[in-house]
Amino acid sequence: xxxxxxxxxxxxxxxxxxxxxxxxxxxxxxxxxxxxxxxxxxxxxxxxxxxxxxxxxxxxxxxxxxxxxxxxxxxxxxxxxxxxxxxxxxxxxxxxxxxxxxxxxx
Length: 106
Fold this sequence. Notes:
The chain is mainly alpha-helical. The protein has one domain. Helix content is 74%, strand content 0%. Helix 1 runs antiparallel to helix 5, helix 3 runs antiparallel to helix 4 and helix 4 (76-85) runs antiparallel to helix 5 (88-99). The longest helix is centred in the first third of the chain and has 24 residues, at 10-33.
């Protein structure tokens, strides 16, 4: 997979990954551990469950694309772990950031 054009926007990808982590994951963790009633209500909401299902399907799709691209580091397993620990708003830019690293010796 040719990711040379992404080298120009690597700093933007890192900022997007950090923003995705802070804007999505931190509020989720707050509600999961502090506002437990709101979290339980969201987990019983059908629309919320549909969006979570969509996120898991997209995660599987992107992991498949990464696996088929032949990228070894970071690979598809890393992507799935980062998606589950964070969110797609975090893991997609982070994966692209790490995949677009300049090659050693260039």
